[in-house]
Design a protein that fits this description.
Layout: H1 25-31, E1 39-45, E2 51-58, H2 66-78
Antiparallel strand pairs: 1-2
Keywords: DNA-binding
GO molecular function: DNA binding
Domain SpoVT-AbrB: 10-60
Length: 79
């Protein structure tokens, strides 16, 4: 599995009153996402254990290697 070497803000999302968010079409297409695909939300926490960020990962890609892939990405985004 290749790891992402660059991270950037892809979109600003808004949650509706039902708690739903919409991923822009261009982002869905680039990520190869389609209706019915399952995503895992991984929460990043600050020093007070407050959730400060969420990462969405395709469910079929989640395994024991995810921590080693996600950790460097978080460092680039949050410090």
């Amino acid at each position: 599995m290749k790891s992402c070497k660059a991270t950037k803000i892809e979109a600003v999302l808004t949650m509706d009153s039902k708690g739903q968010i919409l991923l822009p079409k261009e982002l869905r297409e680039r990520a190869g996402l389609k209706a019915g695909d399952r995503l895992v939300a991984i929460a990043g926490c600050d020093e007070n254990e407050e959730v400060c960020c969420l990462i969405l990962v395709k469910a079929e890609l989640v395994d024991e290697e995810m921590r080693s892939i996600i950790a460097p990405m978080l460092k680039g985004v949050v410090g």
